[in-house]
Design brief:
Length: 218
């Protein structure tokens, strides 16, 4: 019997397992059971042995149960849920604590000559579809512990800006100004992807691409 199946069987018997101070406590669920009824359940060898043999797995399972049920539309799009690594938890905390600092925001830039926009978009779509971390959101308030949720479908935000009317110095100054503002804009951790693209058209056949992402992904 799996952990989920075991928890479900307890709920059907008006029982619930809760985690208190790192230990599992068996108690009445939606119905208040009498002391005699609870004692009878607690003497059930199958239930007691299963809890003892799977204590840590059950604790891990219960700690990931949502404190509030996720919206149906959103939950259908989520295909996997994982705990955060220690480093990811630290990045998430500092990013939420100081939203204006632009901490852990990375920016990569490069120039393209004779760029095919359709192929570029198709390439990014392929990369996102291949790597699940790029389709991941980080939920800190929907669950008892922070978790990362892998989404089934994610579209990369791409912003196109035409700077062909500016001279070279004006273009570079405007791009630097854009980069600074984009860095402190940050991301909504609940909405994937935690990255975006800005494409600056500099001449008829030359573009500058700025790829902004949060380091928690990597």
């Amino acid at each position: 019997m799996g952990i989920k199946e075991f928890i479900t069987s307890l709920e059907q018997s008006n029982l619930a397992l809760v985690v208190k101070d790192g230990n599992l406590v068996l108690q009445g669920g939606t119905k208040n059971l009498s002391k005699a009824e609870l004692n009878a359940v607690r003497s059930n060898e199958f239930i007691i042995n299963y809890i003892k043999e799977n204590k840590y797995e059950i604790i891990n399972y219960l700690s990931l149960l949502p404190a509030n049920v996720l919206p149906a539309k959103k939950s259908k799009d989520i295909i996997a849920i994982y705990r955060l690594s220690g480093l990811q938890q630290g990045m998430l905390f500092h990013s939420l604590y100081d939203t204006a600092a632009g901490a852990y925001i990375g920016q990569f830039s490069c120039d393209f000559v004779n760029l095919d926009l359709a192929i570029l978009n198709k390439s990014w779509t392929s990369v996102i579809d291949t790597h699940s971390i790029l389709r991941t959101s980080f939920n800190h308030d929907s669950f008892k512990v922070p978790v990362q949720c892998v989404h089934k479908n994610v579209k990369l935000p791409v912003e196109l800006l035409d700077y062909t009317a500016l001279n070279e110095q004006q273009q570079e100054a405007s791009i630097k100004e854009y980069e600074a503002a984009d860095r402190i804009k940050g991301f909504d951790f609940n909405l994937p992807p935690l990255m975006r693209i800005a494409l600056f058209r500099l001449t008829d056949n030359r573009y500058r691409m700025i790829w902004t992402s949060h380091h928690i992904l990597f």
